[in-house]
Amino acid sequence: MNEFTSPPLVSTAGHRNATELLMHRFRTRPEHVAFEVRAPDAAITDPWRQVTTRQFVDEVRALAKGFIAAGLQPGDSLAIMSPTRYEWALADMAAWFAAAVVVPIYETSAAPQVNAILADAGVRLALAGTAAHAVLLESGFAAAETPGLGVWTMDARPGADLAALVLLGAGVPDSAVEDRRLLADLDAVATIVYTSGTTAAPKGALITHGNFVGQVLNVAAAYTDVVREGGNTIIFLPMAHVLARGLQLICLANGMRIAHLSDPRDVVPALGALKPTFLVVVPRVLQKIQASAAAAAASKKLGRVWAVAQRTAVEWGRFQEAYDADPTVRAPLGLRARRALFDRLFYARLRTLVGGRLGYLLSGAAALDAELSLFFRGLGLPVIEGYGLTETTAPLTGNLPGAISAGSVGVPMPGTTVRISDQGEVLARGVGVFAGYRRASDNAEAFSDGFFRTGDLGSMDDRGRLTLQGRIKDVIVTAGGKTISPAIWEGYVEGDPLVAHAVMVGEGKPYLGGLVLLDPESVAAWAEREGIADLAGLRIPDDGGAVQIEDARLLGAIGKAVSAANAKIARSEQVRRFVLLLADLSETNGNVTPTMKLKRGAFTERARHIVDNLYADQRTQA
User: Fold this and answer.
1) Which CATH class is domain 18-41+53-184?
2) Pairing of strands 77-81, 123-128
3) Model's pTM, two decimal places?
4) Helix crossing, 370-379 with 283-299: angle to 10°?
5) What SS3 state is found at 71?
6) Domain spanning 283-469 has what CATH number?
7) For 511, what's the count of Cα atoms within 13 Å in the CB-facing half-sphere?
8) CA 390, CA 104: separation in Å to the nearest integer?
9) Domain 18-41+53-184 identical in fold to domain 475-615
10) Is 351 exposed, middle or buried (0-12, 13-18, 19+ CB in 10 A)?
11) CA gyration radius for the chain?
12) Spatial distance between the Cα atoms of 107 and 427, rounded to a whole number of angstroms
């Protein structure tokens, strides 16, 4: 059994609850700009309205009064279902000022999911981002026969929106809000977050005020190069995700401006206007940036030059890792010369494209390919990869500035102990680990010896750096008795920008197979670059199933990624046959979670006939 502890850097003493993260800032720097807000009909590049900490606190208090006047009682649950926007942040904090428990619902959730959450959490009042969300929430209240206090909208229904709520609460005194704000202590539940359910039904995780306060204070203390006065970021992750809310609290508490975007496609044009100092992204975003740069170079007949520039960036990133470990190390003269040349040709332009002030990228939610991490570091955009779950209030481990190790998800966060069990499972205990699930039955196997069982497989080196090796429930046992963790092969293949998801199969079979789900947008762009007209109209089935694509050109392109992945792993872990698939990867059809993680079990069951065909014909493709 292997174990590593990072001691806490900051005490939570002096914080009654999570609202104090805002109020401490309000008392010291009330006129500091906390948010940049875009009007609904404004262009991305138009000036954004600035909201100071004082203005935000005033708006929070006014909305909290509305919640109180509407009948919300201390400890009641309040649901928020909306795209990412400033009003989400406002409602979240106002609910805490009113001593309520926030229940986030992903904006993409289907009616059965909404109904189940409203009933399970005993939601009393709901806030919708759009009129369509309001209809879903009202139907959920009716289906659950829950005595509620109504469904209000952020701005979609005049007379039943935030403005109406503020008007309703106009007669509530400030002292009543302050009394409510101080009711909850660090042990009180702040939010019930329902897990995304990749392998099972969603469960309500009880996250306390102490979890948020402990994480925010200690993460900020560990990342002073990133979290700093005058910095700013854009949040485009779903606000229903605990990572987005934790990130927002860190920024609020430390004087960093926040802008919200509901559509990730708006991020790139917004970078030039907002010039963020750091961004939280998922690996897929980084893959697309790299692919776009390659495509732009190819369009200018610089494809071969870019290929050398890409390899040089990886080499420079690897040198910087070596320099972190030993500052006496010097880069070879040839590498320094190539890096300087390509910085003028490509790298500096890419840094300008992302706003010119970006110091760090923070990556999570999925495995980040080590070479991709090194590539961005070589560009001058270091990527800090971390790992966490809903149940750990987001970050559990993370690489640190000056000690980034590509391929690792870093060391335990301050105030956290990570243990590797004898079975290889990652176990966790510390400031961010939640209080348990809402239903007692869900807790039966969630903890072991005081540690939360993450369900992930991993290993740690002697410096406490964690490397993930897949999910326990995802392991495959072949007909020959070999136990395989598919995550490593899948991660390598998913590094190809044409691939949305890769799934290894082969339970009880004589060899391993692969289902490669294509990214339609990337395939369309690739086909256009290659001059292949007949791939432009690829049709995605809308019934939740998958359709097999047998185009030889695509098979050849993806085959290179599969072969490269196979070359990096043991022969017994290599995929011998694979198929290309197109599927509806929306949450509506149940193939992915709200955070776009593939539900392996559900998808492979739907594609059972395709899997069977992999083994019905013994011809190999890879």
Assistant:
1) alpha beta
2) parallel
3) 0.85
4) 60
5) coil
6) 3.40.50.12780
7) 17
8) 12
9) no
10) middle
11) 25
12) 31
Residue whose pair of structure tokens reads 């002030």 in the numeric block: 357
Cα 370 from Cα 336, distance rounded (Å):
21
Mean pLDDT, each 10-residue run in order, the chain (622 residues): 90 94 96 92 85 98 98 97 96 98 92 90 95 93 81 92 96 96 97 74 90 96 92 92 94 95 86 90 83 86 92 95 92 94 93 90 82 94 93 94 90 96 93 94 88 92 89 76 78 85 84 86 76 64 70 85 85 85 72 70 77 68 45
* List of residues 6+ apart from 333 with CB closer than 8 A: none
Extract the tokens encoding 302. 């610089």
| Cα dihedral sign, 405-410-414-420 | negative
Tell me which residue of 198, 252, 250 sits closest to 501, measured CA to CA.
Answer: 198
> How many whole angstroms separate alpha carbon 299 and alpha carbon 305?
12
Domain boundaries, the chain: 18-41+53-184, 283-469, 475-615
Q: Is the dihedral of CA 390, 393, 394, 399 positive or negative?
A: negative
Nearest of 397, 407, 553 to residue 492 by alpha carbon: 407
Which amino acid is located at 598 in the chain?
L
Element (H, E) at 198: none
- What's the sign of the alpha-carbon dihedral 179, 180, 183, 186? negative
Q: Measure CA 545 to chain center.
A: 26
> Residue 377 is which amino acid?
R
- Contact yes or no for 373/383 (Cβ under 8 A): yes
Q: Cα–Cα distance between 71 and 74 in angstroms, integer?
A: 10
Q: In CATH, what is the architecture of 475-615? A: 2-Layer Sandwich (3.30)
Instruction: Tell me which residue of 108, 109, 152, 115 sits closest to 131, measured CA to CA.
Output: 152
Q: Both ends of the chain: CA-CA distance in Å?
A: 38
Q: Which two tokens stand for residue 22?
A: 């805002």
Provide the β-strand partners of residue 515. 503, 579
Question: How many CA atoms, within 13 angstroms, populate the side-chain half-sphere of residue 15?
Answer: 26
d(CA 493, CA 186): 43
Q: Residues in the chain, how many?
A: 622
